[in-house]
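Appendix B. Chain record.
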Amino acid sequence: MTRSEARPAIATLGSEAVEPAWPRLAGVGTATPALAFARDDTKDRLARLWGLSGRELDRWRRIVDGTGIEMRYGVLPPEQIVGLSTEGRMNAYERLAPGLAERAARAALDDAAVGADRVTDLVVVSCTGFSAPGVDVALVRQLGLAPTVRRTMIGFMGCFGAIIGLRSAVGACAVDSRSVCLVVCVELCTLHLRPGRNADNLVASALFGDGAAATVVVGDRVELSRAGAGGADGIGRLTTGFGRLIPEGRDWMTWRVTDTGFAMTLDRCIPAALNAAVAEIVAEATGSAGGGPECYVVHPGGPGILDAVNDGLSLSGGSGIEAARAILGRYGNMSSSAILFVLARMLRHSYRPPALLLAFGPGLAVETITLQP
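Structure tokens predicted for this chain:
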């Protein structure tokens, strides 16, 4: 870790120095919609919707097969989405996002063995929809949270949003060590299936699926049940993390509102840029010039992204990258929620910290947060 992350700031109460501990990750939960779309089904249905034939159809099939994604999940059939206006898509988001978010939140609370009545802070992360009152207010009612719960909405940041959500939870729990923070990421990426046949739209349509994931983060003075995922000590301790913008990549990855949904651009140079920069970024994030941590929780952005991280960090297909590949193949890229699916899988397979969570998004931004024992 960097010098600033090595330990929390020391507060002084009178003449006595107090050294607070980093907040703990206590539970993780995930949820997907009921509709599942296998790879060949995706290829055929979207090809028909777009009216693809000849070379365009061949290109589309190569793109889908190249992702390695076997299954994705969605809240609506693509035939009901592709012709919607942005207003129609936002109406669907407002109707469907809260239920999926609730399922992930309940799973995280159950995993932590923490009752909803103990939640003091709620952080909701999403880049695929807008409404006010939003998912945060819906979750207060659906989960039975106290009306005094402190709410934070993190919107439109893209695939690294979960890192920002966790960072916000760390801040809340560091300020008040009795805080119990519920972080919920919900992404309905398939609501932005668009009619265009350009390469960016085809790639995005092949990569992204819907999902929600949640975590419970608690302050150092919160007592946890031994029935929770990490027992009375929690799963691990979270730091504030580290982020870096790659300035020349400002327009390489974008996410913009159009009259027919949100449109993504993905430049082909992104994997090469990450390959070249990721080792230096990890060294700066961890303060380890001689090599990074033994384990990584990596956002499954796509096969090219994972190849770049694998090569740039010399992981040889292990050190956690295999979990990211498994999630990508099973669910696709679910934007901000996806990295928490990776973490949940690793925990199910008996992983324990330390590890570095690593995600990427528009900017071009690389965001990290450290999970320590």
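Further analysis of this model is presented in Appendix C.
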